[in-house]
Design brief:
It is a single chain. This protein is α+β, with helices and mostly antiparallel strands. It is built from 3 helices and 7 strands. Strands 5-6-4-7 form a 4-stranded mixed β-sheet, covered by helices on one side. The protein has a 3-stranded antiparallel β-sheet with strand order 1-2-3. The radius of gyration is 15 Å and the shape is globular.
Amino acid sequence: MCGACGSGRVRAPWEDTLGPPDPGAARRRAAALTRWLEPWRWRVAPWAGGYTLAGPHGALAPATGIDEVVERARAARPELPGLAAGPADDLDLADAVVRVSVTALYRDGPLLLVGPDPGAPRRLHAHGRVAVDVVPRAGETWSVG
């Protein structure tokens, strides 16, 4: 651990490696998680070490990344909203990241994340085991397949 950011994280979660550097990305991903978890009144906020969580009965322990938030939500509420079943085109990056994490929790699959990333195609791993192939394309929105 280098400690330069003060977060205590040894390696950034996969979602931090998508797209160009963006100081507002964590805030947008937290908002996407909050929209997804809204039926249970969970709120997610960005934090230097990941995300802080609050449920209907108060604060929960912070999470280090999107995958951890999704896993904890499933543990608390096994009947997660059907995010993986809906349309997966024309998403902003934050919603696409949440969609990939939720889908990866239920599939061993590889997943395909297609969007306006300026980099070359690459493979990341959601939940440490599910391959996510990130492929650039022209346009401003993301899709998950």
